[in-house]
Amino acid sequence: MTASKMSFGINYIDTQSPLHKLNGITKFVLFMAWVTVVLTTFDIRMITVLILVGLTLLKSTQVPIKVYKPLLIGTLSVLSLNALFMYLLAPDQGTKYLGTENVLIELPGRYSLTQETLFYLVTVTLKYFSMFPIALVFVFTTHPTEFAASLNRLGVPYKIAYAVSLTLRYLPEVKKDFVNIMHAQQARGVELSKKAPLVERMKNVAKILGPLIFSSLDRADEISNAMTLRGFGRHKSRTWYSLKPLTTQDWSVIAIVITIVVLAVTKRVIEDQLFWYPF
After folding, report:
1. How far apart are CA 10 and CA 178, in angstroms?
2. Of the candidates 126, 164, 116, which has an alpha carbon nearest to the alpha carbon of residue 144?
3. Which end of the chain is more exposed for a tag (fewer CB within 10 A), N or C?
C-alpha cells in the first residue's frame, strides 16, 4: 500500500449522471430506506438483490471504478476479518439459529465448521456489505450545501443541517490527511507495502491513525473558531444559495422507495423464521 496507489476518494464528484439530478433529500430517503430494509432482513436472497442493485447504482454514478475500488476491497477485507472473529468467538452460532447441524470440517473442541455456521457467516457478511455501495452513491452524488439546504427546508434546524454539510465536506480532507501522514511515516521507514508481514502492517497502520485523529481534532477546532468569528448561529434562520426544490421525479422515487420499505417490513413481520435457509 504505497502512496502512489492512494487514488481513492470519498467526496462529491459531479459527473452529471441521472442520480446527480435527484434532490439530496431523495437520495437521503433512499439511503435510510436501504439501511432499514437491510437491518430488518436476514434473507440472503434479498441481500443479494440489494448488493446487485447497489453496485448497479454505483456504476450509474459514472464515477470511475478506480476511485472506489480500494474502498470496496478494504471493506470486504474488514468484513472477512469480522466473520473470522465471529466464528472464533461463537463457532456454533449458525447451528443455534438454523436448528440443524451438518459438519463440513472436523476441528478440535466446538470449532468444527458446520454448513449452518458457514451459511450464517456468509449471510451476515453480505448483509453488512450491502449497505456500503449505497453509502458511496449518496456521498458521490450529493452536493453537501444543496443537501443541507434541503434538510433545512424540511424543518431540520439549520445548525444541524450545516453540521451535516461540514461532515460531507470533511471526508475528502480526512483522505488528504491520511495520505500526508502516510508519506511522513514512510519517510521515517515505516513499511506499509506487501513486503512487510500482515501483523506488522496492521501495527504500522495504527501509527497513522493516531496522528490522523489528532489532526482531525485540530481541524475541527479551527472550523469551530472560524464559524464563531463569522457569526454562525447568531440568527434563528439563514438563506441558502444552493436550495434545490423537489421535482416530480423526486416524489416518484420517494414513493417507490417507501412502498418497497413497507413491503420488506411486512415480509419480515409475516415470516416466522429469521433466516432463509434452503438446505
Report:
1. 12
2. 164
3. C
